[in-house]
Fold this protein.
Amino acid sequence: MSASPGLDAGDREAASKGPSIPAFRVARSKRMHVYVLIASVIIVGVLASVPLWSQLSTSSNLITLFELVVLAQMWNLLGGFAGLVSVGQQAYIGIGAYGLWLLADEFHVHPFIALAGAATLAALVALPIAPLLFRLRGGYFAIGTWVFAEIMRIIVSNIQATGGGSGTTIMSVASIPFKTRIHGTYWIGLAAAVGSILIVYFLLRSKIGLGLTAIRDNELAAQSSGVNLFRSKLIVFVIAAFGCGAMGAVLGLQLLFIQPASSFSVNWTAFAIFMVVIGGFGSIEGPLIGALIFFVLQQTLSQQGSTYVLLLGAIAVVMATVAPRGIWGWVVARWDLHLFPVRRGLVMESPPERAGPAAPSEAAAASDAS
Amino acid sequence: MNWVNIVLQGILLGGLYALFAVGLALVFGVMRMVNLAHGDLGILAAFIALALVQSAHLPLLWASLLTIALMFGIGYVLQRGLLNFTLGSDDTRPIVVTFGLSIIIQNGLLLGFSADSRGLDAGAIENASIHISNQLAIGWYPLLVFIAAVAVIAALQLFLNRTKLGRAFRATSDDREAAELMGIDNRHIYALAMAVALVTVSIGGIALAIRTTFDPSTGPFNLIFAFEAVIMGGMGSVWGTLLGGIVLGVAQVLGAQVFGAGWGILCGHAVFLLVLALRPSGFFARTVTT
């Protein structure tokens, strides 16, 4: 890397005094990102106003979309950025859903507040299990996460208080008037979806994000450059558990009724993988696109049952084999478009003295381009 | 309560798990790929055998042999035609693709055979047992499965150690590029390894189908048990999978006896986590993987 993002002012000055190295600065945002920000605020604002003017069924449907966005972002944070492919995020979805029941019904916390507690519970459970799972790598790590999800499912199924395998209704949520519940869940779901994007965004812009990119590109080189692999992975894993826990709690608020077989279902992983593979690994935009596509498919095709899930699997297999970078990867390759300014690039401050073909452009010299 | 009997049952159950585990370990050993559809492919074999028995009215033995031969071919084509293209620098692709495959097989079976529980009928041998004392009896069928597991593992070990093709397997496992330079066609070796793995898992799937009932959703459980056996046994060790399977089987049977039927499998998972915490490289760690 000719220009590391860590260059300070002195280095830059020295660099700019060199005979052939033009003045530059390291930047992430472009003018376009201001428009993206304005558009994002408008979109979120419009979404936030939906319950005020639309029918309840619309709000109710959109809650599902928000859940999918959280799920896709969290799975991609693990699999797309940290190289931790999980097939067991349903563990934390289930803990979130049952955590909501535990806090709201057993400890009489208001359901909307219990949601935060349920997500925290998922993160707390992930904290000790992560170091154990990190002993496994690649595909074996994936099955390890699945084992943990199975453990949680069996435990919850065997406890009488939770209604065992036949599930339970979250009574304190059921007692909230229907309209209040849907509206409240809608706004919480929207906050969770926006929050999941913001968490990934700020994480990627942080030192941890830079370390993750380095790990993804070359684990050994990253470690020898001082990237704390274990700590970065742990932080990501716990955040993903928190996000999935929040998603599970939103699911509990939305459905009222929870059951081990569906809360801890491996289908959640199938959905997550489908969304991220279709949309594109390793970006914020990809999982968003994937979630939108999956949402539309689900609204139209989910009556088909097995055929529908089989189709999802087949599309994921074909996409991962033929077009592993997904839709957003294709967009990036074609237009070099990045809606979220998480990559660092060089911005020329003065034109180079000798115009050469190798003059670094904003994009070409991005130190953390995929 | 006869504890010897229970432990013995667990050991014999371990043989069944080893039949599922050894193929998973072989594929990982040769091409560093973890096949998340491994369990489902075993159940697919059980359904193929069932279809041959029910529709073609073949005797179980012939149906099983035909199924195993068919799975060999499926394994070769699957690896050569699809999975080889996912291998490379990116670890995520084979995981995603084999997981997708698992989803496809499960739901395909669900469409073709419905969610009903099925079983393969092997006749009188299923209930025959060797009477040792009043408290101690060994079922003929579990014993046969265990012997089959030992035979499969021994044959695989002999194949890997003594044959030219086995040497090519080991060479590819040790250093893919060097093996390629020596004239070994890795794509062919990978496809053969998958074919052999599917032969072993088909034996496991059919053995399971005779022992108990199965349905399209049974596959993932067997993947998980196989995985636990592989990790506990020590990655890269073929005999280790047998020991891992036995430890898992004993833990499950003992757990079910002590804590009740619902908790047996959980005890197996708990022992697995314990081994992972205390001895992460397994009992027989051979290959150091990075």
About this structure: The longest helix of chain A spans residues 178-205.
